[in-house]
């Protein structure tokens, strides 16, 4: 399933004890409609408050289903801040997480006060040096180990990520950071953004930014940028994934 959600009211994507997650909301609705307990498996995790313009998840069924009817019924059951955009039949061994080739995020900074963007953008009133921030992005692309931008207590086999793109672009009064990689560590994008903001404010030099990456020490990097301005925007898959 291809889906979108506003993460404001959720404790992230993944199921958690005694907390409302996007995954649990969809699983509850899906299980009710299919009349069988139906777990779903997402392409990744988003933190509490993070949004997704494009997320994918898969589920298994033992009988053929009418995907058009299920799509309509799911959207009728789900709250207004979760939308199922499409449901596809895929190969039996397909996996939303492990088959994904890349993920892409956007982080939005508003350079002016906008009351309608309070839960959508991070407002920064100080002047940011965008060229310096993009020079730091070029440094990012030279490395693969991003332990310095990862949560310290996380169960991963490697801190290596194949970073394919990282750049800031100014669109009127909105500064948008786009980053694409094969995978991301927990809290990685927000930690990168927070550190790049310090570069833009000239609190961290380009030389120090590179030293932070080399250190592999989270305490040396900047603070995590607020979650409400982060969006998962795309996930790519091999073309041969579907039966069609």
Structural write-up:
The protein has 244 residues and is of the alpha+beta class. Helices cover 24% and strands 22% of the residues. It has 2 domains: 97 residues, Pseudouridine synthase I, catalytic domain, N-terminal subdomain (Alpha-Beta Plaits), CATH 3.30.70.580; 133 residues, Pseudouridine synthase I, catalytic domain, C-terminal subdomain (Alpha-Beta Plaits). It is globular. The two termini are 15 Å apart. 31% of the residues are buried.
Summarize the structure.
This protein is an alpha+beta fold and 244 residues long. It has helices spanning 22-34, 67-77, 130-140, 188-200, 206-215, and strands spanning 2-5, 41-42, 51-58, 82-86, 102-110, 122-123, 163-171, 174-181, 230-236.
What are the main properties of this structure?
single chain, 244 residues, alpha+beta, Alpha-Beta Plaits, 2 domains, 9-stranded mixed β-sheet, 5 helices, 9 strands
Question: How are the SSEs placed, and which strands pair?
Answer:
Elements: E1 2-5, H1 22-34, E2 41-42, E3 51-58, H2 67-77, E4 82-86, E5 102-110, E6 122-123, H3 130-140, E7 163-171, E8 174-181, H4 188-200, H5 206-215, E9 230-236
Parallel strand pairs: 3-9, 5-6
Antiparallel strand pairs: 1-3, 1-4, 2-3, 5-8, 5-9, 7-8
């Amino acid at each position: 399933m291809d889906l979108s959600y506003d993460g404001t009211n959720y404790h992230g994507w993944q199921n958690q004890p005694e907390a409302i997650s996007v995954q649990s909301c969809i699983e509850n609705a899906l299980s009710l409609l299919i009349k069988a307990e139906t777990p779903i498996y997402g392409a990744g995790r988003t933190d509490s408050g993070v949004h997704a313009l494009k997320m994918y998840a898969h589920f298994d069924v033992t009988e053929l289903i009418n995907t058009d009817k299920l799509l309509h019924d799911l959207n009728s059951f789900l709250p207004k801040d979760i939308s199922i955009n499409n449901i596809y039949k895929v190969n039996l061994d397909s996996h939303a997480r492990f088959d994904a080739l890349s993920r892409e995020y956007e982080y939005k900074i508003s350079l002016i006060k906008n009351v309608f963007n309070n839960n959508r953008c991070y407002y920064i009133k100080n002047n940011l040096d965008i060229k310096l921030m993009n020079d730091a992005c070029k440094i990012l692309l030279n490395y693969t180990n991003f332990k310095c931008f990862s949560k310290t207590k996380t169960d991963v086999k490697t801190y290596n990520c194949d970073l394919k793109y990282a750049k800031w672009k100014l669109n009127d009064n909105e500064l948008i950071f786009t980053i694409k990689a094969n995978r991301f560590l927990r809290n990685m994008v927000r930690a990168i953004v927070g550190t790049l903001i310090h570069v833009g404010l000239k609190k961290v030099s380009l030389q120090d930014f590179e030293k932070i990456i080399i250190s592999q020490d989270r305490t040396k990097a900047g603070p995590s940028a607020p979650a409400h301005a982060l969006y998962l925007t795309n996930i790519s898959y091999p073309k041969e994934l579907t039966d069609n």
